[in-house]
Write a structure and sequence with these properties.
The chain is of the alpha+beta class and 449 residues long. The chain folds into three domains: 163 residues; 105 residues, Helix Hairpins (Orthogonal Bundle); 152 residues, Histidine kinase-like ATPase, C-terminal domain (Heat Shock Protein 90). The protein has ten helices and twelve strands. It has a five-stranded antiparallel beta sheet with strand order 2-1-5-4-3. α9 runs antiparallel to α10. It is rod-shaped, with a radius of gyration of 50 Å.
């Protein structure tokens, strides 16, 4: 049962049902005690009245069945029986009509008792007079007691059942009314258009729903920020692609018009360079677009040193073309993350270092475990480095370092920062090899157990 409304209703019904049965049991006990007390008191009153009415000359008279005891209508319905006995010779002196000839209590012991007489069970009160010569036994049939009890209990039970049903209906109504703001908020969110990013208002919502509404609003704010970033990304990407595509078109037109001359060969080289740059930009844009999907996948524990070795081998040929050298200084270390996303991070770090390091330079890739858990990945070079005032902006999308002499896309380090952030890692800039160039350090948190 996943519905909170149904679970609450079931819990209330169960609680009310248990309370109803507990109240019924308590009422049964109280009515039983009350009924027994009332009966015992009425028997005592009847016995005392009979004792008062019995004359002293009764001992010399024959048994009389005409004893009259004043009773209430309720006692008449209970059919109180009274016997007056002589204790000396155990002789019946008087009795009410329909009373048996045999004593209710055969041993004539005073007090309250339950006994069988004439094939029936009786509740009996026995009392002696002051002289100790006469005894009165007042009795009522326990069957009449049960019938009277059942009658009274039935009336109370009918009333209690009606009250229970009314309470159930009231509880269901209260639950329905209490969930009305939830239904209203759900309908409000359901009717929203996809482009509607306005926050859900808290006005009119119960205080208990405020944390839930706050969470929804925070989600909407994050979604709105994501949509805004994607919108800016698309606008920037379109702007960045417009320039190389225009250059590509111009160079292609120049090649088409130029005869087979050195100028044509130069135009072909430029066309090839523009095509390579455009392809690189497109690849980075695609990496940027699928980074969120990659980082949202189920993380796995992977060897960062093996990944660094594999990516470094992929860039060996590119480094050799510029007489550059890639140096590996890796130790076995593991991190938790997505293999493809971390591969994109490493490729962009290495590509950026090779691109801005002059011919004959060195790029060192190192990784190691941290003492307090996690791992550290570092890519350092001995290139021209980055001015301190530029270091905070190198992770901005489409930002290019001024005076670098390279026409990068401005996406690589922004992509690195995004992937590091999604993996809970921290990225810092420091001095490169021999105090030259730049070192980009990515510090990964400890892997989850």
């Amino acid at each position: 049962m996943k519905s909170l409304r149904k679970r609450l209703a079931a819990a209330l019904l169960l609680t009310m049902t248990l309370a109803w049965f507990a109240a019924f049991a308590l009422q049964h006990r109280m009515m039983t005690d009350e009924q027994t007390g009332l009966w015992d008191q009425s028997l005592r009153d009847a016995a005392v009245q009979a004792m008062t009415l019995a004359p002293d000359s009764l001992l010399e008279r024959a048994p009389d069945a005409g004893l009259a005891v004043a009773t209430t209508p309720e006692e008449d319905a209970d059919q109180t029986r009274v016997q007056v006995w002589s204790l000396a010779d155990r002789r019946l002196l008087q009795r009410t009509p329909d009373s048996p000839d045999a004593p209710f209590i055969a041993d004539f012991k005073p007090g309250y008792a339950t006994a069988d007489s004439g094939g029936q069970a009786w509740r009996v009160y026995v009392v002696n007079d002051a002289s100790g010569r006469v005894q009165v036994q007042a009795a009522k049939s326990t069957q009449a007691l049960r019938e009277n009890y059942v009658h009274r209990l039935s009336r109370g039970l009918i009333f209690a059942t009606l009250m229970f049903l009314l309470l159930v209906a009231a509880a269901l109504g209260v639950i329905r009314r209490a969930f009305r703001p939830v239904d209203r908020a759900g309908d409000m969110i359901l009717r929203r258009q996809p482009q509607d990013q306005t926050l859900v208002p808290l006005a009119g919502m119960p205080t208990e729903l405020h944390p839930f509404i706050h969470s929804i609003n925070q989600l909407l704010e994050r979604q709105r920020a994501t949509v805004e970033r994607e919108r800016e990304f698309l606008a920037d990407a379109a702007h960045e692609l417009r320039t190389p595509l225009a250059a590509l078109s111009a160079q292609a037109e120049l090649v088409a018009r130029s005869p087979d001359t050195p100028q044509r060969a130069q135009a072909v080289d430029q066309l090839r360079a523009v095509a390579i740059r455009t392809g690189r930009l497109t690849e980075q844009l695609l990496d940027q677009a699928r980074t969120d999907t990659l980082c949202d996948s189920v993380p796995e524990t992977l060897r960062l040193d093996l990944l660094a070795d594999m990516v470094a081998r992929d860039y060996e040929a590119a480094a050799q073309r510029k007489q550059q050298r890639i140096v590996l200084d890796t130790q076995a270390c593991a991190v938790t993350g997505n293999l493809d996303a971390l591969g994109v991070l490493l490729r962009n770090l290495l590509d950026n270092a090779l691109r801005y390091t002059p011919a004959g330079g060195r790029v060192m890739v190192s990784c190691r475990d941290r003492q307090n858990g996690g791992a550290v990945l570092e890519v350092a070079d001995n290139g021209p480095g980055i001015a301190p005032q530029e270091r905070q902006r190198v992770f901005d999308r489409f930002h290019r370092v001024a005076g670098s002499g390279e026409r990068g896309s401005g996406i690589g380090l922004a992509l690195v920062a995004q992937i590091a952030r999604r993996h809970g890692a921290e990225i810092t800039l420091g001095a490169g090899l021999e105090g030259q160039g730049i070192a980009l350090t990515v510090t990964f948190p400890p892997s989850a157990p």
